[in-house]
Amino acid sequence: MNIAVAQSGGPTCAINASLVGVFKQGLLTKEIDAIFGSINGIEGMIHDKLLNLKSVIRTNEDMELLRQTPSTMLGSCRYKLPNYEENPDIYEKILHTFEIHRIGVFIYIGGNDSMDTVVKLSAYLKQIGSDVKIIGVPKTIDNDLPITDHTPGFGSASKYVATTVQEIIRDSCVYSLPSVTIIEIMGRNSGWLTASTCMLRANGEEAPHLIYLPETNFSAEKFIEDVKKEMAKHKAVIIAVSEGVNFETENSGIEDFQSGAVDNFGHKYLSGIGKFLERFVADRIGCKVRSIELNVMQRCSSHICSKTDIDEAERIGRHALKTALNGETGKMMYFKRISDMPYAVTIEMTDAVNVANLEKKFPKEWISPEQNQVTDTAISYFLPLIQGKVDIYRKNGLPVHFKRPLR
User: Fold this and answer.
1) Label partner for 28 (CA 20 to 30 A): which of 41, 63, 230, 298?
2) Which pLDDT band, with edges at 50, 70 and 90, does 247 fall under?
3) Average pLDDT for 110-123
4) Distance set, CA 121 to CA 46, 93, 146, 367 (Å)
5) Quick one: DSSP state of residue 33?
């Protein structure tokens, strides 16, 4: 029997570690011959674009280098698999790829949209009596997948964001002039990543002085009042804001700072809240103000990745293949937290339908009554996820990355 693995959705620091986990477990399994990588997610299965991973990952050094390399070595996609009734040809193409390559297990690493593919594909295969097993491995820096305590990729992203915000704090405090710095952080409908900046309080930082999340209603007028209150206490006010904050009124003016484009799943491309608030503060307060959009750097800054995150990502990839070989299909692996101190998790499985197209919000009980800050309760949740340092391979003082040979 052969197996295949694919990566989907936005890149992270840890998604290649999950790929390595599947690969390593495949090497240890006698009944498995070839281990294929599907190029550009499910699209590789549709178009029969597979890579024999044993031909490119040849040594233990290759595996370790790939494990610490950010982004998706196999490429990614944001392809929405249609329902079988809408386009049966797509499913038949995937089945043909499975059959000609003798693939008995397909591991799909991705977020809640990717779990939709796991659900649809596993249901189709069951319906036609196929024995191919489909298992999902979670991945997203947004940490917004239901059931799982957290997602691979989130720990490293939150470590980068918190570290960067701390450096911005140092930079902003050197001048005598009053100032406001607005840091725009990824988070479409959930504010986990933005909220994680509260971890800085564990190291004695007061900033970010204000934190705004999509889980609450956002008022530009109240925002100005909040900023003025903080300026009365701090010369340099630091603000963390999620890109997807939920404005109370539709005609806020934020649309003028956004593209309005959507992806294949109907998700709007956001960003722009930082620039909007920068202009708003300049007009209403008139102080020195700048906005900083962390953008894609949040996803793939492996030079400061969390060892906990990378190790767990590999572990959950291993468990996914074991689960498939035990006869399970249509499942997603997830982390169940046992304790914060000492930190401990187990790896469990759930039906992928419990995750597909669903989102886990940041708990409202961890948001301050003023809806502009995060409570200390959240710190004990976040801190274990950023622990440890990976010994990054370097050359000429720069990180070295694993690169897939071009075809």
Assistant:
1) 41
2) confident
3) 97
4) 12, 12, 20, 38
5) -
Which one-letter amino acid corresponds to residue 367? I
Q: Is 142 a catalytic residue?
A: yes
Sign of CA dihedral 54, 60, 63, 65: negative
Cβ count near 224 (within 10 Å): 16
In 3-state terms, the chain is what percent helix, strand and coil (to 5)? 40, 20, 40
Q: Which two tokens stand for residue 224?
A: 């100005």
HSE at residue 339, side-chain half, CA atoms within 13 A, is: 4
What count of Cα atoms within 13 Å lies in the side-chain half-sphere of residue 144?
22
Catalytic residue among 113, 142, 309, 311: 142
| Among 6-10, 206-210, 251-255, 344-348, the least confident range | 251-255
Q: What is the pLDDT of residues 262-283, one digit of tens each?
A: 555 454 445 689 999 999 999 9
Distance CA 354, CA 210 (A): 34
Residue type, 31: E
The tokens describing 369, both together, are: 């009554």
Average pLDDT score over residue span 9-13: 96
Cα dihedral across residues 164, 312, 65, 56: positive or negative? negative
- Whole-angstrom distance, CA of residue 205 vs CA of residue 282: 26
Residue 4, phi then psi, degrees to nearest 5: -140, 150
Selection from 254, 240, 258, 245 nearest residue 183 by Cα: 240
pTM listed for this prediction:
0.94
- The full length of the chain comes to 407
Angle at 263 between CA 258 and CA 265, to 5 degrees: 130
Name residues whose C-beta falls within 8 Å of residue 365's C-beta, 6 or more positions apart in sequence: 375, 377
**Token pair for 169:** 């704090």
Tell me how far apart the alpha carbons of residues 241 and 397 are, in angstroms, rounded to a whole number: 33
What pLDDT shows up at residue 371? 97
Select from 344, 317, 321, 299 the least CA-distant residue to 143.
299
pLDDT at 11 over 80: yes
Note the pLDDT tens digit of each residue in 377-396: 999 999 999 999 999 999 99
Tell me the two tokens of residue 200: 């800085």
Give the pLDDT band of residue 1 (cuts 50, 70, 90): very high
Place of tokens 């997948």: 145
